[in-house]
Amino acid sequence: MEFSEYFQPLSKDRFGAFAEQKNSLGSVVEMHMEEGGFPDFSGSHIAIIGVGDDRGAVRNDGCGRAPDIIREKLYALKLARHPYKIIDLGNLRTGATLADTYAALSTVHVELFKEGVLPVILGGSQDITFAQYVAYQKLEETVNIVSVDSRFDLGSSEEPNNSDSYLGKIVLHEPNFLFNFSNIGYQTYFVGHEQIDLMEKLYFDAYRLGQVRRDMEEVEPIVRNADILSFDITAIRQSDAPGNGNASPNGFYGEEACQILRYAGMSDKLTSVGIYEINPLFDNHDQTSHLAAQMIWYLIDGYYNRKKDVPLKSKTEFVKYRVNIKSSEQEIVFYKSKKSERWWMEVPYPGNKIRYHKHHLVPCSYKDYEAACNDEMPERWWQAFQKLS
């Protein structure tokens, strides 16, 4: 099957005019339209993909209509001073079954990975995160998933894969190559103590909404460690993002969501992004789609502000600090980037677990270094050590 046959081209009547709008983002995006043929994605930086499959949605039927509305808002936004190389592959053709849609999207991801292109998915329901995950199986490396969500979506083993159970399906998937899962912004009254206990038993990381909002800068190291970012729009408060059947009065503000996406874009490690559960049927004057468009704008802005300072590539661009934790007789080695002033720390791993080699340098913050200097073991170090051991 030709790669182009996976996709439905965009309507020229609906999107063709954006190419003529001076200084708009749409003027620099190469779009797969009804006329003009399928774009060559080799050499591209970012690929926009619409996935309008909402068969896995729970209490949110209609979110499959979102991709084109988000595009309209996104392509009307203004340009920054970046060397844009963005393509829009169009909308993924919906499979006969959900499994067919997952398989098609995973295949597309693998081809984009080979070319070093960052896929940005416009959903659709959040169970599509499962397809993002399965795409990494051919890489034969463990991966980190970060989900921005008010819930954990663990579901039960009896449930089919849907937006409330996709994480449970990922955990049970064989072969399993999930190294870590981090939730940002859960709300306790939606998850309960049993699911919190289960997250702890799995050594997953969960950050409560209030905890995160007190210091948004501490989100950056969490997101910097992600291979996959999955953003459920229900993580944003209803007043800012009403377009969802499960919207809640509490959540992140719109500008905080944009900040998280910019952090994500700046991460050299991030290789797949999805924004899910936006439902135009519940929206108010396309407010939620407009917010999603601004979030993607910040993701793109972050991408073009990458510093390429991953420590594994070159330690000469870093200042190295050694801190002895007397209480545990443990030495922690920190690295501070000379380019970005971001921090990492080394976590030892058993030599027979080579598959974990890329996880022993853990993104952290200056606060973690301060804690170590005060003879306190940084929580991030301890969490990573438990997973590696």
Q: What overall form do the CA principal axes indicate?
A: globular
* Unreliable residue runs: none
Mean of all residue-level pLDDT scores: 94
Based on CA atoms alone, the radius of gyration comes out at 21 Å
How far apart the termini lie comes to 43 Å
Main pleated sheet: 10 strands, mixed
What is the tally of beta strands? 14
Strand residue content? 15-25%
Number of helices: 12
Element string (H = helix, E = strand): EHEEHEHEHEHEHEHHEHEHEEEEHH
Structural class: alpha/beta
Name the helicity range.
25-40%
Structural features, described:
- With 389 residues, this protein is α/β, with parallel strands linked by helices.
- The chain contains twelve helices and 14 strands.
- α2 (66-75) links the parallel β3 and β4.
- α2 crosses α10 and α9 (254-266) runs parallel beside α10 (287-303).
- The radius of gyration is 21 Å and the shape is globular.
- The model has no long low-confidence stretch (mean pLDDT 94).
